[in-house]
Write a structure and sequence with these properties.
Layout: H1 3-25, H2 30-45, H3 56-67, H4 80-95, E1 110-114, E2 118-119, E3 125-126, E4 129-136, E5 146-150, E6 175-176, E7 181-182, E8 187-191
Parallel strand pairs: 5-8, 6-7
Antiparallel strand pairs: 1-4, 2-3, 4-8
């Protein structure tokens, strides 16, 4: 049938059903009529009549969900990529190469503490400060073999493993005997700059004037 023909057919069918119900309502069988009207109304309004028949797979899934005490539509969604990234971030915090902020103590790095103030180029000053650092190699008698590794704000002083912190550093393969920064020749010092978060005076530090 074409679309207009179907529309006319549906209209005539609806009118015919309405007429039959009107006739039945005046008949000697009102209870039968009422029952048929209820059936017809259920047929036209109940979504269950037109929903797909559940398969064995969907029945099993619903049963499993019920046993778990939850609804099938409220199960927790899984995002493997995000979960993998979260696990990687957690592993980096726990295993390095950068130590967690909370684990930076005098037990894991060396601390230089100055009671003298330092005046800043753009105004203000720090009444005292501390610098976290780590070192490798041996300083010679005339102190001419020192190399200072000066990092950005994002890096800690843990460029290479030490006795205090044996975990691999972020430049582990560059520092050591016979390597690019040869600890047989040089005394290597790496600091966490002031303003960093790995042990040196920074945003989390307490102002000594307010103690």
């Amino acid at each position: 049938m074409s679309t207009p023909t179907v529309s006319v057919f549906n209209t005539l069918l609806s009118q015919s059903i309405s007429h039959q119900l009107a006739v039945l309502s005046k008949s000697a069988y009102p209870s039968v009529c009422k029952h048929r009207r209820t059936q017809l109304r259920c047929l036209s309004t109940s979504p269950k009549r037109f929903s797909p028949r559940p398969t064995n797979a969907t029945k099993a899934a619903i049963q499993d969900s019920s046993r778990e005490g939850g609804r099938l539509g409220h199960q927790q969604l899984s995002f493997p990529c995000l979960e993998k990234l979260e696990q990687r971030s957690k592993a980096l915090i726990e295993n390095g190469p950068e130590p967690a902020y909370s684990k930076i103590t005098a037990g894991s790095v060396e601390i230089y503490h100055s009671k003298e103030p330092v005046f800043l180029d753009y105004g203000g000053y720090l009444p005292e400060y501390q610098i976290a650092y780590e070192s490798w190699g041996k300083l010679n008698a005339d102190r001419s073999n020192a190399i200072l590794i000066h990092t950005g704000l994002s890096a800690s002083s843990h460029a290479k493993s030490t006795l205090k912190n044996p975990k691999k550093g972020w430049w582990e393969n560059f520092i050591g005997p016979g390597k690019y920064l040869d600890t047989d020749k040089y005394f290597i010092i790496c600091t966490n700059v002031i303003g960093g978060c790995f042990g040196s005076t920074g945003p989390s530090s307490t102002d000594p004037l307010t103690d």
